[in-house]
Design a protein that fits this description.
Two copies of one chain form a homodimer.
Chain A (H helix, E strand, L loop, with lengths): L5 H8 L3 H8 L7 H13 L6 H8 L4 E6 L5 H16 L3 E6 L3 H9 L5 E5 L6 H9 L4 E3 L9 E6 L1 H15 L4 E5 L5 H16 L9 E3 L4 H15 L6 E4 L2 H13 L9 E6 L12 E4 L2 H16 L7 E4 L2 E3 L10
Parallel strand pairs in A: 1-2, 1-3, 3-4, 4-5, 5-11, 6-7, 6-8, 8-9, 9-10
Antiparallel strand pairs in A: 10-12
The structure holds a DNA duplex (30 and 30 nucleotides).
Organism (chains A, B): Saccharibacillus endophyticus
Keywords (chains A, B): DNA-binding, Transcription, Transcription regulation
Protein name (chains A, B): HTH-type transcriptional repressor ExuR
DNA sequence: CCTTTTTATAAAAACGTTTTTATGAATTTA
DNA sequence: TAAATTCATAAAAACGTTTTTATAAAAAGG
């Protein structure tokens, strides 16, 4: 028994396929009795429209694509879950593509597998790609850069300001030796937070030591290992504070410090970024710069949907963090 | 400038559209010079095939769908990342649908948006849905139940055995009062681990106290709060061990115990499930039953692809955990 | 009561591909 | 060298829809 098509429904109901289509799509031109009858037949035959036919003809997939290099960690699942829910609210589905293969990304975008795209590709999509997308009037929202033109916008965090604020806060407490735990340099948020941190150091006349930027990959376990290595190298004179690129790093850092017998914040202060759900329950509860992730997710989807509907041009929106002071930071001891 | 189609390429190259199609799809029937010329023209025009047309005609989307109720936590991102990579290896893309709306799920599956589906829907898809899918010869792999027929298989963990083993291990250490921290009852893994735990209790003649099953929702922070409440209620006579439904719960439980001044494993033992990446770096490192998540991901994708290729019928595969003893468990003190 | 308008439905075209079939030229076979 | 085969390409059909256009019947208008 082959797949039931609209043709089968039409034959069974004794009407034309256009009538079936109209009945199914609530186009108000039919005799109510006919419509009712068609719907009953469709139901009885368990008819489900083929989406590929639908998409081809209508030019709409009712899907948004999220292209990302990673789904690891609380940032992403909060983002994905919130975006999904918001998509559903607009009648769209969310398609998550986890890949770093630009070819895959571009052919899916330009091949119209989705009606609009959300991009978090750590800048792998370059000027030239954007130009190509623009020619095709692709609707897009970038999360990995501030950018806008008529069909593309962005919703980003002001990570530079966040880094600056966090560093300023620690400096204000009296810290003089502050290390930064970075991700890799392709992570724009990591880089911008670091730049903000550097700017604060400079502004307050603190020296910058290249050794004091530690690669933690934005992950808890990687940071744990990196900090253990760092402590072994710098045991004689440890920083009095660590500014971790995200909360996961902060947590890994604290675990490593504890494993070496240091108290947080007694001996060393640690500050993170994001304010992920666990941050407040961690021991000690984390001082961090809160990122409104859910807000970013909602603004992104809403903006994209409005662009698709032609109600809005692309715009670049910036979200600012909020310093949340908890127990992991303190005035320095020495 | 409207979207470039295969027709435009054909006209520009002075050949028929079938020739263009053959050139692009490496069908070896063309004069190499013609093929070369067509490819050059396509390249010059920045032609990208419309996937909807392609999918409709060929009946293949080259996409697998992962339908899940959640993407939260290390289990899911390990699963999704590994599945994505494995899909790419087979030339497929992975489509992640995060939704609990059965209607959405079924219309995407039956509407052929994807060539095969991976299902983790906490049993929301029932017998009847499966019957419908079977009529359409949908290729599927279930992660949330053991099941198989000619076009559908499953790859699951033997959570019952894992729960049994973990409980037996604690009993063997001498623990008599062991609490279980569950997810919600729709989480099959939670339920089966609990059942294994109950079976072990029974086998070794330990009494079961209904109060000793605590709802932690498989999340770190929820468990943290639940255990704090539990401690307040049972401060006079605490269990000597907690068996947490997953590692996140174990971590939340340990944090709560610490917050109340209990030592782990000095005063109380805690055992988890999964062996997520952080488990070994946690303080104390977690005793846990390791789930081969990456293996599950790879087996799932491979099985699904082989079913799509018609090389294999559905089969039900079961993975077994491995008890990893670390520092969070110990013989009881009283 | 004949013409015009409205209503309900059917027929046909279209979306952009792939695939099947047809065509004509070049090559081989007998 | 006429017939058969192979090769290269073109033409046409098909995938399952939606949308546009056509048609016939019913209702309204003068």
């Amino acid at each position: 028994m082959a797949k039931i098509t609209i043709r089968d429904v039409a034959r069974e109901a004794g009407v034309s396929i256009s009538t079936v289509s109209n009945a199914l799509n609530d186009v108000d031109v039919l005799n109510p009795a006919t419509k009712q009858h068609v719907l009953e037949v469709a139901e009885r035959l368990n008819y489900v429209p083929n989406l590929n036919g639908k998409m081809l003809k209508s030019g709409k997939t009712m899907m948004l694509g999220f292209f990302t290099t990673s789904v690891s960690g609380p940032y992403f699942y909060k983002l994905i879950e919130t975006m999904s829910r918001q998509c559903e609210r607009h009648g769209y589905g969310l398609n998550v593509f986890v890949t770093k293969d630009k070819q895959v990304i571009m052919s899916n975008i330009l091949g119209r597998r989705v009606d609009g795209v959300i991009i978090y590709e750590e800048l792998k999509i370059d000027e030239h790609d954007i130009e190509i997308m623009q020619k095709d009037k692709i609707k897009a929202v970038f999360l990995d850069r501030a950018f806008s033109n008529d069909t593309m916008g962005s919703v980003t965090f002001d990570s530079y300001a966040a880094g600056y604020e966090a560093a300023k806060y620690l400096i204000g407490l009296g810290h003089k030796r502050i290390a930064y735990i970075s991700g890799v340099d392709t992570m724009f948020d990591s880089v911008r937070r670091r730049d903000g941190y550097l700017a604060a150091l400079k502004e307050y006349g603190l020296p910058f030591d290249g050794d004091y930027v530690i690669q933690g990959y934005f992950e808890e376990d990687s940071t744990f290992n990196a900090i253990k290595a760092f402590i072994r190298m710098h045991a004689s004179k440890l920083p009095t504070a660590f500014l971790a690129g995200n909360d996961l790093s902060a947590m890994g850092c604290i675990q490593a410090l504890k494993a070496h017998g240091y108290e947080v914040p007694g001996d060393v202060s640690v500050v993170g970024f994001d304010d992920i759900d666990i941050a407040q329950y961690f021991s000690p509860p984390l001082t961090t710069v809160r990122n409104p992730i859910a807000r970013q997710a909602i603004l992104t989807v809403d903006h994209l949907v409005r662009m698709i509907q032609g109600k809005e041009e692309g715009q670049s929106q910036t979200l600012t963090g909020e310093l949340i002071v908890r127990a992991s930071s303190h005035v320095p001891v020495d």
